[in-house]
Structures are given as structure tokens and as C-alpha cells.
Amino acid sequence: MAEFEVIKPRFAELIIGMCHLEKLYSGTRWAEGPVYFADGRYLLFSDIPNNRMLRFEEETGAVSLFRSPSNFTNGHTRDRQGRLVSCEHGTRRVTRTEPDGSITVLADRFEGRRLNSPNDVVVRSDGSIWFTDPPYGILSDYEGFKADSEIGACNVYRLDPDSGALTIVAGDFDKPNGLAFSADETVLYVADSGRSHGADKPHHVRALHVTPQGEVTAQRVFADIEPGIPDGLRLDSEGRLWISAEDGVQCYEPDGTLIGKVLVPEPVANLTFGGPRRNRLFITASSALYAVFLNVRGLQTP
Ligand code: MG
């Protein structure tokens, strides 16, 4: 089975001939939220319907339970101090895990009303926390707890690191999902996975030009993703976007040109670069965790 699809010849330079897509673990119901810890050489990821987080040890290949129940965590990232920041469907909040293991709630309400079910999160170099809030965790009891939306909208939020104030960055997404900053942090890429619940709904990634305070000064559709929907995404050191889709991970140049794909046999939810040199792409795809070494490095945040 082909493991890569080369659409533009320059994508071939990003492939290492002897490196193949490896299945590292199987047994998840819906794998999501990969986050890499170079200091411990492990990867954490969510298994949302099973209400648990798993830990993959890079040196031994072992996978163990990290947290269960996990409050149906979805996306994760690390903050400027290296602490784990998590989106929780079950408790409808964004949390931080402290070095001693205790959990601090960073955001659970907007103007007094509960969030829907925070999905994915990224931290800017100034410490501000940006996250998306679609309803996937409250649509059924499968990935959280079925409930009505109190806010009645699916927003992209910015959490101020000093005041703790939550403000809306964008309120016009159908189901905002994965997100990532450009290297200079002037562009915030946000996936809209609305098509998961309607064939005529959005399935694109938008590029929002944002001020550090979260004001959108301009925006455009970066790319329509086919097949399936975009969920998680990451940038590499050259500004290329690696975006999840039904057929694998798709690689786009900064101008929106699709140059190639890492083909994965299951729909992909999310991905992250890891390994000590950030040249290993970890992929959470439905029932399994995959990885492949590439001739690229993930973007190092400033
Ligand atoms: Mg997601």
C-alpha cells in the first residue's frame, strides 16, 4: 500500500525513502490530542470515548494509561513553562496540569454561561491561550455528556494570561476545531469541521490575521479540505501546513498549494511533530496511533 502521495515533485524531498508509516498502538475508539514531551521522550494523547489519556514511551514503544477518567479530554498543548494544557469535553473546560499533578481550571464559562466542549488549544509566546469550542462533546453521551449549548454559538476564544479574561476571536465558524499559529504568530489557522454534521457545511481551514490581543484584521479561506473534514493541524519549520483529513495528513505550502499526503488507512483526527529533533510526525487516527519520520522539522514556537 502506498504510504505517500506525491502531488508536487518537491514533496518527495520531504520523504525519507527507508521510513514508513508505523502503527504504534491500536485500541482507541477515537484517538485525538497528541502532545509531545521531549524532556521525557513521550507522547500523550486522548482516547475520547474511552474517557482516558494514554502515554506512548518513545524509547521502549510501551503505551500505558496516563489518566482515567480524563473528563473526556480532547486536544492538548504545552504552555510556555512546559505544562500540559488540555481541553475537556466532560467538564466543558480548559485546564492546566501543574508539575505536582494537580489540575487548575483556566476557563469554563464565557459571560457566565458554560462553554460547549473545548476541542483544541494552542499557546502563543506571550502566554495567551487560544482555543476552539464546538459542540462535539455535548451532542451525545459518547464523547462527553449530552447537553444543550448555553452559549448558542461555537466560538474561537483567547484567554488573557494576566487577567484571565476570555474574549471571542471569531464567532462566525460553524464548528471551529484544530488551530495553529504561523511562525511570526500574525496568522492563526483554524479548521472548520462543520461538514461532520451536514454535507453542505464548511470543511476548510481559514487563515485569520490576528493582533496579539485577538482582533482579526483580515481573513481568508486557506484551503478546502477533501476528502472528509479538517480537524487538527500543525506547521513545519518552512511554514507548510500539515492538516488532518479522511485519507491521511495533507501537506500544504503557505500559499495554499497541496503538495502531497501521508496516506493513513483510517480517518485522521490530529497530528503533532515530535522526537528530539521534531522530525517525527505522530498521527492520531481513529482506532490507532501512527508515526512516520520525515525530512522536515516541526515549527518551534518562538
Ligand atoms: Mg479536534
In spatial order, strands of the major sheet run 1-24-23-22-21
User: In CATH, what is the homologous superfamily?
Assistant: TolB, C-terminal domain
Total of helices? 0
Question: Structural class per helix/strand content?
Answer: mainly beta
- Helix coverage percent: under 10%
Mean pLDDT across the residues is 97
Number of domains: 1
The Cα radius of gyration reads 18 Å
What is the terminal separation in angstroms? 38 Å
Question: What does this molecule look like?
Answer:
This protein has strands spanning 4-6, 22-26, 31-37, 42-47, 52-57, 63-67, 73-78, 84-88, 93-97, 103-107, 109-110, 113-114, 121-123, 129-132, 156-159, 166-170, 176-181, 187-192, 204-210, 216-224, 233-235, 241-245, 248-252, 258-263, 270-274, 280-285, 288-293. By secondary structure, the protein is an all-beta fold. The chain has a single domain (4-293), classed as 6 Propeller (Neuraminidase). The radius of gyration is 18 Å and the shape is globular. The N and C termini lie far apart (38 Å). The protein binds magnesium ion. Magnesium ion binds next to strand 7 and strand 17.
